[in-house]
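TASK: fixed-backbone design
INPUT:
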């Protein structure tokens, strides 16, 4: 329970950071971080409620797993961290709407989360959603990179 409560406090603080940073933005741009902060507050509260309920029912912490199951694969963590750094490096150079779908597909394949075609569909759908929300609806500038000549910003 302590582990979940500490994580809930951390996410609650993170949500507060999003909320207060959102207040310093223009009103149209502030909506999204404030919505995210609200969701973070909601899920943090749900996490605390669930851990309190489990503690009351005696479920408590799950039994510790064997050493093999808890082992952290350091090379995979380093490679994934390098992927994130590469993604951040590429956004201003090739554009958000090229870098993000590539990053998502590579990440899904790396994590073996879903199949290749579903990864492509999810990443393209997410990119369209981000374009509609931020570029078309909120009129916020997003680095277009290679696609700049195809889209007027």
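OUTPUT:
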């Amino acid at each position: 329970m302590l582990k979940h409560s500490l994580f809930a406090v951390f996410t609650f603080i993170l949500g507060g950071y999003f909320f207060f940073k959102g207040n310093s933005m223009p009103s149209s741009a502030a909506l999204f971080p404030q919505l995210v902060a609200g969701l973070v507050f909601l899920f943090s509260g749900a996490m605390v409620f669930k851990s309190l309920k489990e503690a009351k029912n005696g479920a408590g912490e799950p039994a510790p797993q064997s050493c093999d199951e808890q082992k952290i694969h350091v090379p995979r963590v380093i490679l994934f961290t390098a992927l994130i750094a590469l993604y951040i490096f590429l956004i201003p150079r090739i554009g958000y709407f090229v870098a993000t779908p590539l990053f998502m597909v590579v990440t899904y394949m790396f994590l073996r989360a879903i199949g290749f075609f579903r990864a492509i569909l999810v990443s393209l759908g997410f990119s369209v959603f981000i374009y509609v929300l931020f570029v078309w609806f909120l009129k916020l500038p997003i680095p277009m990179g290679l696609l700049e000549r195809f889209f007027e910003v």
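COMMENT: The first helix runs from residue 2 to 23.
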